[in-house]
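Need Death domain-containing protein's 3D structure for a figure. Predict it.
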Amino acid sequence: APSVIPIDNSLPAGSVLNESHAPVILKAINSIVNEWETLGLYLGIENKELKLIHSKSFYQIDVSRKDMIVHWLKTGTATRKKLIKALQELGRNDVAAEIKRLPTCKQ
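Structure prediction for Death domain-containing protein:
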């Protein structure tokens, strides 16, 4: 039988995040709608990159948000700590708290 990789609801604490962490992050930041671009800036993504992501997805926020998170995860510098800090800077302590509640996994 083909092995199905279960969606892991944990985020590693100390190590760099990668694309496999996108689903759990996207689920956690689901309530961030109009401010997804600002979150991207706080995550260190250049504004021109965010504009490109925005225009490519024809202004569909869910698609833009996913592409932005995947782009951030591909930088190789994405961490749980940075995500929490960016959410706090955005004034979304509720979402930051949700990320903090996610179990940490050993890699």
